């Protein structure tokens, strides 16, 4: 794991670029040529898969699942008997951990205020109605490893929000043609309404358009690979989406008192996700950076996913020596990481320095892996620098706001003339007339007496 100075890091591992700005690998183009008969890029491949699902429904889903996942699927909805069997066969300690996680996620999100309000005064009533979204579809990856925690971290906040219909879709295992048993167990623990079998862009298409077996939803949530993310982008507008998650990332800000073994363990935990994961240490202590570098090399030999880790550590990961601790926080805020871990003395005194992060983890006993599974807040957090404007999954992702306007005659007389004036300023005479008929005002007089500052310029 290399050690960088700040300028070098800013040109390399700290440099952000659009998530879809990459050179398409030749092997991906080769694969698409075999599938489509043309050497097309991933975006066009996704467009064609979505169009096929929209046109042919279940038949397209089954065909793409067989072609891309190598699994033959019968019923696209997982029967309750299979979910019950998963609950009965999943290891009891795993099931207990799923239930603990779900309980803590639920308890955390029930503390989040998301309330309707109505205010009455002399002009009438104004307010907002907070209503749950009707149908939520959750994509749960199942490629290199099942992710039951992601299901819980998305479905449970949706349930807290009062969503009446929550569906999960996840790729099949080749042997069974069903999602992984631990994913099915998590779906039962989360109390979802239906589980379906499909992966990739075709699964997103099924939720967006609906098929004979899968109802269309109002919003699609959950992370996935490049094709899933491209598909979510293409269907946005027809349905809502939670975001366009990219590879996972962690920034650790550490001072000279940090434990290098803990810092190394936290970096490796992030780097093992995939070869595009980012795990970055920012510290003013070169001595600490060197100790962490040695600890990473030593701990790496003890871990299972050594091939992925080795590739990841040589790609978008590294140790950066900053002039001061303040400089480390400045770099972290510009980078806007998904996870920001503070391995510093008295981390609470530094919390005000944090401006951009999906989640901030305070101290050596509050590390990111606990957040991944059991801390309480959803671990589905903004990536790719989008923490500058986006938030982790929360109750507000599953509700919508309806404005309430109930004004009276007093309000009409007070604010109606201004409304008519603005309508005339915009050249919308029908708008103005709707006001003037109620005011009983001569339209020409109203224009003369309430000249818009827009027209006066």
**Percentage of helical residues?**
40-55%
- Radius of gyration equals 26 Å
Using DSSP, what is the number of strands? 14
Question: How much β-strand is present in the residues?
Answer: 15-25%
Return the CATH topology of the largest domain: Rossmann fold
Work out the count of structural domains.
Answer: 3
The profile of the biggest β sheet is: 6 strands, parallel
Overview of this protein structure:
The chain is α/β, with parallel strands linked by helices and 457 residues long. It has 3 domains: 3-13 and 247-389, Nitrogenase molybdenum iron protein domain (Rossmann fold); 80-243, Rossmann fold (3-Layer(aba) Sandwich), CATH 3.40.50; 408-456, no CATH class. Helix content is 45%, strand content 16%. The longest helix has 19 residues, at 92-110. Residues 446-457 have low confidence and may be disordered.
């Amino acid at each position: 794991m290399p050690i960088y100075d700040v300028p070098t890091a800013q040109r390399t591992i700290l440099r952000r670029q659009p998530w879809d700005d990459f050179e398409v690998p030749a092997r991906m183009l080769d694969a698409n040529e075999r599938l489509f008969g043309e050497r097309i890029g991933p975006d066009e491949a996704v467009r064609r898969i979505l169009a096929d699902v929209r046109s042919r429904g279940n038949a397209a889903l089954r065909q793409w699942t067989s072609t891309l996942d190598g699994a033959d699927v019968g019923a696209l909805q997982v029967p309750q008997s299979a979910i019950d069997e998963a609950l009965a066969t999943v290891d009891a300690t795993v099931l207990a951990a799923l239930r603990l996680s779900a309980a803590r996620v639920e308890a955390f999100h029930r503390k989040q205020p998301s309330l309707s309000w109505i205010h009455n005064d002399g002009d009438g009533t104004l307010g907002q109605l907070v209503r749950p979204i009707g149908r939520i579809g959750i994509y749960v990856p199942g490629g290199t490893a099942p992710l039951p925690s992601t299901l819980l971290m998305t479905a449970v906040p949706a349930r807290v929000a009062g969503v009446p219909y929550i569906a999960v879709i996840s790729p099949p295992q080749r042997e069974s043609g069903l999602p992984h048993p631990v994913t099915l167990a998590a779906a039962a623990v989360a109390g979802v309404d239906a589980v379906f079998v499909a992966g990739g862009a075709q699964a997103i298409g099924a939720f967006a358009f609906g098929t004979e077996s899968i109802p269309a939803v109002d919003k699609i949530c959950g992370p996935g690979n490049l094709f899933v993310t491209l598909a979510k982008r293409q269907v946005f507008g027809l349905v809502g989406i939670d975001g366009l998650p990219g590879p996972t990332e962690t920034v650790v800000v550490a001072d000279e008192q940090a434990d290098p073994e803990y810092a190394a363990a936290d970096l490796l935990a992030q780097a093992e996700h995939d070869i595009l994961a980012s795990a970055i240490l920012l510290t003013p202590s070169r001595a600490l950076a060197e100790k962490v570098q040695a600890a990473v090399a030593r701990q790496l030999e003890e871990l299972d996913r050594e091939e992925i880790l080795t590739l990841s550590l040589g790609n978008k990961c590294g140790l950066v020596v900053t002039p001061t601790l303040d400089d480390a926080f400045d770099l972290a805020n510009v980078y806007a990481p998904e996870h920001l871990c503070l391995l510093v003395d008295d981390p609470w005194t530094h919390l005000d320095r944090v401006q951009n992060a999906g989640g901030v983890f305070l101290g050596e006993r509050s590390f990111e892996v606990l957040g991944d599974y059991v801390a309480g807040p959803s671990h589905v957090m903004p990536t790719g620098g989008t923490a500058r404007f986006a938030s982790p999954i929360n109750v507000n992702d599953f509700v919508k706001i309806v404005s309430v306007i109930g004004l009276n005659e007093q309000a009409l007389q007070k604010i109606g003339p201004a409304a008519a004036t603005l309508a005339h300023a915009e050249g919308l005479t029908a708008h103005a007339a709707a006001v003037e008929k109620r005011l009983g005002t001569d339209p020409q007089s109203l224009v003369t007496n309430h000249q818009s500052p827009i027209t006066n310029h």
